[in-house]
Amino acid sequence: MNEIAPIVYVVDDDQVFRRSTERIIRMAGLNVQGFSSAQDFLQSQRRDGPACLVLDVRMPGLNGMDLQRELTKSNFRVPIIFITGHGDIPMSVRAMKAGAVEFLTKPFRAPVLIDAIRSAIERDRSDLEKQLEIRELRERYNQLSPPEREVMTHVSSGLLNKEIASELHKMEGTIKFHRANVMKKMKADSLADLIRMGEKLETSI
Question: Which has more confidence, 3 or 53?
């Protein structure tokens, strides 16, 4: 697929620190967009593609932890790197348990931040690829007729055509016909490929 260039969002009410952070990120060759508050970020038009959120913990109004909860509730998934000048262990534990990928305490060296950002973007890229694959598999699966879905379930469990025919009380030729349609519609190159597709669909439910 044609990948959209990754972007890094920086949310920090400290204008000097925010602009300094944006400059560091741009110098690393990454796109960046800054926000002075969690509210501004929530109201913004966020684009598709790999992303990372560099988020200050302590801010007026909605703080960083509040924003993390709001994003989780709205089902907006993005790797979060928390930054703070007042971090403590319990706070970092809560942030990581809630899905943050890193927790950095000011001051930190620029390479440490960039390494964390690149790791977070790679993680998001991988997650997006998996989501796209599942979405495409679901679109193909939805094209199957009810009998074809039934046959796919049995084929994915490792049963032979004659065993499926016995289970479903149908002619073996009918099972072969449905199986061929399943392979074609799911774009499976082999039985092993179809089984993997079935497993991915099952685990994504």
Answer: 53
